[in-house]
Amino acid sequence: MGAITAPELYRNFGIHLFVMLPAAMVMCWIATYADAGLGLPALAPPGVRIPAGLALIGLGGSWVWYVYGYLYLSGGGSPGTHVDGGPTALVDTGPYTMIRHPSVIGKLCGVIGLGVCFGSVTFLAGFVPVLILYSVVTNRYLQERFCDARFGKRYQVYRERVPMLIPRPAGIRRWLRDDAAVPEHVEREEGLEQPDGIWMEFRGYLVGLGLLIAFFAGIAWAVNA
User: Fold this and answer.
1) Per-residue DSSP letters for 26-73?
2) For range 163-171, the mean pLDDT
3) Non-local CB neighbours of 224 within 8 Å, separated by 6+ positions
4) Any domain includes 224
5) pTM of this prediction?
6) Exposed e or buried b for every residue in 6-27, given b needs 16+ CB within 10 A?
7) pLDDT value at 23 more than 60
8) 225 lies in a domain?
9) Domain of residue 113, residue span
10) 56 lies in a domain?
11) How far is residue 152's CA from residue 163's CA, in Å, rounded to a whole number?
């Protein structure tokens, strides 16, 4: 709850909402166009799918707010490197002792909820798996590049002990016991090079989203041709 008054957290949220929400909505619209070409009906009547979808969006958003707030307070920096340079301390407790990118769970829940609101079979069955793959690639080669440069050996140990997205029983037990993932004897290295080009992460997301939209639009055009 201490993150409520942190303006950096909300600036990061604002950027994500501006980039992700319009992009996801455009993808859903493209998917409904593909549904029409494939002759696929909507999942359910609007009175059923819209409340269900909004509930998923609310659940996912609440989870993202929680894990981002935890990261901000424990790591001393916003989750977005483009906002204030990113966390200054490695966070390996709480939800981050279970998986390396817990916010993805909430984002995925929100995206699925949006697809349910649109009632698109193509989006949920075809586009969402591609978005999961996109998230895995960007997390590994954009976000974790930053963490490798900033935290050095400690992050390497963290990555070995904590899976990216699918929790292990040991990680769940650590979270319940409030244990850290990285042993205390692994000291923080001094004089590590600070990652440069922190805006590259944000630009990478923008470029990736643009390419995904173009890819999905090509699929929709092909099935309607």
Assistant:
1) HHHHHHHHHHHHHTPPPSS-HHHHHHHHHHHHHHHHHHHHHHHHHHHH
2) 93
3) 33, 34, 36, 37
4) no
5) 0.85
6) bebbbebbebbeeebeebbeeb
7) yes
8) no
9) 2-38+47-219
10) yes
11) 18
pLDDT digits (tens, 9 = 90+) for 133-151: 998 888 888 788 888 888 8
Which of 151, 56, 54, 142 shows the shortest CA–CA distance to 101?
A: 142
Residue in the block written with tokens 């909820």: 113
Provide the number of structural domains found in the chain: 1
Decide if 200 is inside a domain: yes
Q: What is the dihedral of CA 198, 128, 98, 143, to 10 degrees?
A: -10
pLDDT of residue 80 exceeding 70, the answer is no
Longest dimension (CA), the chain: 62
Half-sphere exposure of 11 (CA within 13 A, CB side): 14
What percent of the chain shows pLDDT beyond 90?
Answer: 51
